[in-house]
Specification:
This protein has about 70 residues and is an all-beta fold. It contains no helices and 6 strands. It comes from marine metagenome.
């Protein structure tokens, strides 16, 4: 079982900060470009923290340019 931890930033400035398990987002926080928390990932499941009409699902695409630290 492979685990890692870090920060993933997409080209729009949104960030995922937390843990990966076997290459998947596992336990962490998703933030918008201003640092506001928009969702949490708990055991691989995204928990929405914003009203549905305001929130759009956050996706990381494999071909996106990202930064891991």
């Amino acid at each position: 079982m492979s685990k890692s931890q870090g920060i993933l930033t997409n080209f729009e400035g949104e960030k995922y900060e937390g843990e990966w398990k076997e290459g998947l987002l596992w336990n962490g926080t998703v933030m918008d470009e201003d640092g506001n928390i928009i969702s949490k990932i708990v055991n691989g499941v995204e928990v929405n923290l914003l009203p549905t009409e305001v929130y759009s699902h956050f996706e990381w695409k494999e071909n996106e340019t990202t930064t891991r630290t």
